[in-house]
Amino acid sequence: MANAEREKELLEALKQSVIDYDEDAVVEAAKAVVEEGFDAYTAVFDGLVEGMNEVGRMYEEQEYFVPEMLMCADSLYAGLDILKPHIEQKAGGIKGAVVMGVVQGDVHDIGKNIVKMMFDVAGFDVHDLGRDVPMEKFVEEQLKTDSELVLLSAMMTTTMVGMKDIIAKIKEKNPKVKIMIGGAPVSEDLADKWGADGFAKDANNALKDALNMVKALKDLQQQ
Amino acid sequence: MKSKELVLNLLTGKDADRPACYSGMGNVTTAGLEQFGYKFAKVHSDAKMMADTAASSYKLFGYECAVVPYDLCLEAEAIGCVMNPYEEVDQLLYPTIKEKVCHSEDEMTTFPIPDNITSRGRVPMVCEAIRLLKEDIGNEVAIGTYVLGPFTLAGQLMDLNDLFKLSFKKADKVNAMLDRLSNVTIEIAKALRAAGADYICIREMGATTDVLSPKVFRNVIFPHLKKVREALADVPTVLHICGGTNKIMDILNDVGCNAISVETKNNMAKSREDIGYEPLIFGNIDAYNVLVNGSPEDVEKAAIAALEASVDAVWPSCDIWPTAPIENLKTMVETVKKFGAEKWVRKNR
């Protein structure tokens, strides 16, 4: 079989296995990519991430729900674990850092974890503060790591209110930081009102926006 | 007709003059707390403080109920979880569970549930708050309380990621766990009822169709809600689900509670198309964007829109965020009192 054809086959297998949340099949295809000497970076972006994009679409169409999406994410990570060590030495990857976490009072971290996955994939330094994170911790961590992006998540109306103060605090210390907020009760209106740079209304949109932000940052770095 | 009569008549299928404006969820306000000089983090564990502040919503803006408790940790704590009331934090935060009791898939059917569940944690204290409320304003307004649905309770006891995945992959295991937890929901609900609660809201907010498919809802969430409902057959109950609910209105209706409470994401016209005009549906004022951030005009508009959309009682979509201005809340209640009878779709069809 011609090389290009075999690569295409493996990329398709990676993509489809992520969609089918078939961890074993993802692992098998990822191992084949490494063993047969194909480019791991391509395998991640044109295989795993393509699959996750489709999952995002299916989530939006309500063919898939959160359990399915979590299982797809597990499959993606299984493939990423195998492929990632083979990407590091490659030049031209994105360099960037992001601080993320779920605001204090809120222990719902599924949306945040899905977004985290995309940044992991993109090769970012992800400083994940977890859930129920006090306001000062976001501010401190941003300063300490000099991250370009801060992502705040809240899943309940009763907890999202805390975001307003965190945004103001971070912007006060470092006006150049881009802040993105997400979670079920958050709206574009609130993002504007609170001075955030971006917003995502659910896991899928977070995923899309995360990809867009990664791309925008990449474009900036290439200029 | 008095507020109390209005609320209870409506719930029990008797005649009522107009939709009421009340809730089965938290509605303590910063103004109510300040009046007594109480700190929010402290009111969760003191019956008098809880009752004082709960009554203040009726006293300050005419809310047609008083509801306790304010947090979502009561059941989990009685089972043995540890709650964090955030006493050290200056900003307003609702308590959360910081130590869970179920740490693996295997433990779902084995983690211990104490026998004397209603004498544990803060259950006796919340019962006491209900008794105090009954004495204070129990003749004027209905005293409400809430319990967590079994699935939402499960989410307090174990890792949510695992719970969601297992609901899809191993429905039997989750069903076995939820069956155990439905007994907790039932027992605590009965204790709250015995203390004097006039109605109980069952909050199954973790199971919205924003996260779970209607199929999983039917197979994993529904049977336990039905069990809870049947065990509380003589108690007026309202089933509340957050998020998008249109795809499961028929299932919610099958649970058979006296009323269904939905939030702003619910398209009421579609809901009526699906389950008709007979079931009582409560809702759906945005508890933050309208009640906190809106002007009194916005609130009036939202209350009228909810009435015109055929709600049978105007309920905020969620707990009222405490900083909501009293003027807004007053406007909400007064709008319902003023336009309720005239705009009530049930009476005008």
Q: What would you say this structure looks like, in words?
A:
The complex is a heterodimer of chains A (223) and B (349). By secondary structure, chain A is an alpha/beta fold. Chain A has two domains: 3-86, Methionine synthase domain (Methyltransferase, Methionine Synthase (B12-binding Domains), Chain A, domain 1); 97-222, Rossmann fold. Helices cover 61% and strands 10% of the residues of chain A. Chain A has ten helices and five strands; from the N terminus they run H-H-H-H-E-H-E-H-E-H-H-E-H-E-H. Chain A has helices at 3-19, 23-35, 40-60, 66-83, 110-121, 135-145, 157-160, 162-173, 188-194, 203-222; strands at residues 97-102, 125-128, 149-153, 178-182, 198-200. A five-stranded parallel β-sheet of chain A has the order 2-1-3-4-5, sandwiched between helices. In chain A, strand 4 (178-182), helix 9 and strand 5 (198-200) form a beta-alpha-beta unit. In chain A, helix 1 packs parallel to helix 3 (40-60). Chain A is globular. With 349 residues, chain B is of the alpha/beta class. Chain B has one domain: TIM Barrel (Alpha-Beta Barrel). Chain B contains 15 helices and ten strands. Chain B has helices at 3-11, 30-36, 40-43, 47-61, 74-79, 123-137, 150-157, 160-169, 171-194, 214-231, 249-255, 268-275, 296-308, 326-343, 345-348, and strands at 20-21, 65-67, 82-84, 96-99, 142-148, 199-203, 237-240, 259-261, 280-285, 313-316. The radius of gyration of chain B is 19 Å and the shape is globular. Chain A binds chain B through residues 62, 65-68, 70-71, 74, 104-110, 113, 132, 134-135, 156-162, 165, 184-185, 187, 189-190, 193, 202, and chain B through 84, 86, 89, 91-94, 96-98, 160-161, 164-165, 167-169, 209-213, 216, 242-243, 247, 287-289, 293, 317-319, 321, 323.
